[in-house]
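Its record is set out here:
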Amino acid sequence: MFTGLVQAMGTIAANEPTGAGRRLWVNPCELPMAAIKSGDSIAVAGVCLSVAGPPADGALSFDVISETLARTTLGDKQIGDRVNLEQSLRAGDPLGGHFVQGHVDAVTTVLEVKMSAEDWRITFSLPQECRGLLVDKGSVALDGVSMTVARVTNRDFTVAVIPTTLRQTTLGRLRPGEKVNVETDILARTILNYLRDMVPGCSPAVAVAGTGVRT
């Protein structure tokens, strides 16, 4: 479990094929290396991965299976690419973002980036897997960053990004056409799944009726 508050940006140092997928080596920069051990969970670009072995030459290794490569942006990462990093939440840690599992629902595409001194807004396509799960003022994790949805339609959604987030995460580097991992709010998923099971004929459109979703 994570919070969506990125602790550091790492850099892909190596990307090696394995029998089950690929092994990624990530230079973790500001993460406390001495406290990280094999088996620890770390969110890499919003994907929950387990540390494959002791840190080596200042980098952490992660084994990424083919299923994860196919369903996230990790399969497209190249050496030198930057990724958001967050260690797993521990009992007693402050929860400043929202509950993030590191289980990606879909990959979305950046449609538009509006930049100004006062406001920076990024609009993404709305994947089919996320329909009915994003609402105005609701939470969403984008490449592992906890964000609040500023606007959602049946085609796309927009987030407003503060300067601190732009500086400290990869969201400030996004441009139209780039791909991002999306994880919807676990509370929204739980409620929608409950309604689908308990209310005959319930669809995402019915479940979010009255929540402010625009068409």
